[in-house]
């Protein structure tokens, strides 16, 4: 059992690569054309994986921008941020 644990830790070596998840998601979304293409892709991926039900939520609320750490974050506070 101990040997198995040590061999797993050897496989999980950190190579120092860092990816900002939100930046990566934004880049992926920017590569899709406008419209429902992203939704169709999500549903197709779920179908390919054998997922029987897909639930999506469209949130059109806007939120205050007065207490943000940076003014640049204001663009992420409401529905106008889709596709940013």
The residue fraction in helices comes out at 25-40%
Overall 3D geometry?
Answer: extended
Give the CA-CA distance, first to last residue: 48 Å
Count of runs of 4 or more consecutive helical residues: 3
Give a quick rundown of the structure:
This protein is mostly helical and 84 residues long. It has helices at 2-11, 21-30, 37-48. The longest helix is centred in the middle third of the chain and has 12 residues, at 37-48.
Question: How would you portray this structure in words?
Answer:
It is a single chain. The chain is built from three helices and no strands. The termini are far apart. It has a domain at 16-56. With 84 residues, it is mainly alpha-helical. The longest helix has 12 residues, at 37-48. The chain has helices at residues 2-11, 21-30, 37-48.
Descriptive tags:
mainly alpha; 84 residues; extended
Reconstruct the topology from this structure.
Blueprint: H1 2-11, H2 21-30, H3 37-48
Domain Sacsin/Nov: 19-79
Protein name: Sacsin/Nov domain-containing protein
InterPro entries: HATPase_C_sf, SACS/Nov_dom, Sacsin_chaperone_reg
């Amino acid at each position: 059992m101990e040997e198995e644990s040590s061999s797993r830790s050897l496989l999980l070596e950190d190579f120092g690569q860092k990816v900002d998840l939100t930046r990566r998601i934004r880049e992926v979304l920017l590569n899709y054309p406008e419209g429902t293409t992203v939704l169709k892709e999500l549903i197709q991926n779920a179908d390919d994986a054998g997922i029987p039900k897909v639930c999506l939520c469209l949130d059109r609320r806007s939120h205050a921008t007065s207490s943000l750490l940076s003014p640049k974050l204001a663009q992420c506070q409401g529905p106008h941020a889709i596709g940013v």
